[in-house]
Amino acid sequence: MRMRPVPLQFGGGLLESVAQAAAIAASLVLVLMVVALGTYAYKQLRGGGVEWPDEEPDDGEVRHGDSDDEWKYY
Questions:
Q1: Which pLDDT does position 11 carry in this prediction?
Q2: 0.90 cut: is pTM over it?
């Protein structure tokens, strides 16, 4: 009669639980990153995204500042 070898398992339950928790957390982070990227792309396409100060329309209007202002013209 031949005996089958029994594999040794050290802390398999705890290590397995930690690995599953890490996989779930990584999946959640990935889903949140995809949602954030989609939201950013949607805002950019709809025109409500980032607006840089130098992209303001230049109407060419120059006006005088008040007497106590640091600048004479705006």
A1: 54
A2: no
Pick from 31, 34, 33: nearest CA to 23: 31
Q: 3-state DSSP call for residue 17?
A: helix
Residue type at 29 in one-letter notation: V
Alpha-carbon torsion angle 44, 45, 51, 55, nearest 10: 140
Taking the CA atoms of residue 31, residue 34, residue 35 and residue 41 in that order, the dihedral angle to the nearest 10 degrees is: 180
- Where in the chain are the domains? 15-44
Distance of alpha carbon 25 from alpha carbon 39, whole angstroms: 21
Structure-token pair, residue 34: 């995809």
Question: Which residues does 71 contact at the CB level (< 8 Å), separation at least 6?
Answer: 65
What amino acid occupies position 4?
R
CA separation for the pair 36, 44 (Å, rounded): 12
